[in-house]
Amino acid sequence: MKVWDIYTRLWHWLLVLGIFFQWLSGEVLDDQMQNHALIGYTLLGMMIFRICWGLIGPEAVRFTRFVPSWTTLSGYITKSNKAIFVSHNPLGALAVLAFIVLITLQAASGFFMEDEIFFTGPLYNWLSASTTSLIAELHEIAFTGILLLIVIHIFAVIYHRFKHEPFIVKAMVTGNKPLTNPFQPLPAVQLHIRAWLCIAVSIISVWLLVNHLPGWLGVEADFY
For the chain, what are the domain ranges? Predict the structure, then answer.
């Protein structure tokens, strides 16, 4: 049965590429800071899209359908015979939420940073030097958290691939799982309309944040 729609799958794999580039441009390359910032804005837009998609997207990706209660989470952790969920299992759901929070923090903190050569964030001069320095530390901590979460996620996927769900990786490519799907699928037209509405919201939100938020806050600076 079709579980993951095309937009959710694209979001997942574009996120993989985006985080890889952020690591490469931040840790290995020394002349990609402008592109690092552009991809950071893109990742922020992707987080806004996912929040929007979690509200009006297909049932399988809505927060109301897969975010676990404490009872569900504790029951899943303590049971040796793990139930197979059509959508995210309880730990996977928490991982999705953690990724959204950490990547949003990472992208937002970049607004307050500069590298003295290629890039000055749109809100770099808004706060005091000491506060900006703390935000720069938060930027590093958040990315370390993202990398740690990625490692845990990879090991969890490998574990479930061989222990419980041999189709788990393939499902994020094809969107299909060999399970009875309890979710009512969206008609194709509705799916695309809602997805493009979320895409429009994310693009407009990032454009406003980058181009107009500094002016609204009284920040006068050139930034890239």
Answer: 6-216
Closest of 22, 213, 205, 21 to residue 122, by C-alpha: 213
CATH code for the domain defined by 6-216 = 1.20.950
Gap between the Cα atoms of 71 and 92, Å rounded:
15
Contact status, residue 221 vs residue 124, Cβ threshold 8 Å: yes
Residue position matching structure tokens 């996912």:
50
> Helix crossing, 70-78 with 90-109: angle to 10°?
120
77-117 confidence digits (pLDDT tens): 887 777 777 788 888 899 999 999 999 999 999 898 877 66
**Cβ-Cβ contacts under 8 Å for 91 (sequence gap 6 or more):** 73, 76, 77, 156
pLDDT tens, residue by residue, 66-78:
888 888 888 888 8
Which of 4, 11, 67 has its CA nearest to residue 202? 11
User: In this predicted model, what pLDDT tens digit does every residue of 160-175 receive, in sequence order?
Assistant: 888 878 888 888 899 8
